[in-house]
């Protein structure tokens, strides 16, 4: 999106990029469909870490197995196409920014993508702690509805990936002069409490272990970005 374009040109470019994103997700659904079995094996690792197995997953409806497969394929397609999605959003918005901020905007875009994938992997690698915490409240044989299990995993990964965008959001506010870096440096305690509170709201489990595991790396990333921005803008 460029400043000298007309509204119709902006709208045309938006449609073109939206069509490209939708087409890429649709194209990615084909390999995702054939990778389904391998991906399922990866998604079963968290319950295997707490001593359960695929036999612990149950199906309650005739159509549930198909619903699970479609949801897994859609999620995997989105996950594969995320770089294309992020690039097209950035390519539409960044040209409207002032020249001095374009380079750092592209840097933050790349960092945002890395933070999301990093947060998603972090969530996947540690989600067995959350499941172990909740299952510790019962002594009966655990039978998990397959649809709910995969929905839990997808929500956990998505929410934590989005939550890891907090440092990027703060950086955008600094670039647009909504807040000053010096103000953020003076409000470290308040920012930490804000991150902690937001993590408690965002995490789908809300257990203390997940809360700590999500809050600490997010705050560390925030501190690093703020120090980088301090050198450039303060």
Descriptive account of the structure:
This protein is an all-alpha fold and 234 residues long. It has 10 helices and 2 strands. The protein has helices at residues 7-34, 36-43, 45-49, 64-93, 99-135, 146-163, 166-175, 181-186, 188-202, 208-233, and strands spanning 57-58, 144-145. α5 packs antiparallel against α10 (208-233) and α9 crosses α10. The longest helix is centred in the middle third of the chain and has 37 residues, at 99-135. The radius of gyration is 21 Å and the shape is flat. The protein starts with 6 loop residues before the first helix and ends with a helix.
Overall 3D form: flat
* H and E order: HHHEHHEHHHHH
By helix and strand content, what is the structural category?
Answer: mainly alpha
Mean pLDDT: 83
Stretches where pLDDT is under 50 for at least 5 consecutive residues are none
Q: Order of strands across the biggest sheet?
A: 1-2
**Count, helices:** 10
Overall tally of domains: 1
Summarize the structure.
This protein has 10 helices and 2 strands.
Please name the defining characteristics of this protein.
2 strands; 78% helix; 234 residues; mainly alpha; two-stranded parallel sheet
Please describe the topology of this protein:
Layout: H1 7-34, H2 36-43, H3 45-49, E1 57-58, H4 64-93, H5 99-135, E2 144-145, H6 146-163, H7 166-175, H8 181-186, H9 188-202, H10 208-233
Parallel strand pairs: 1-2
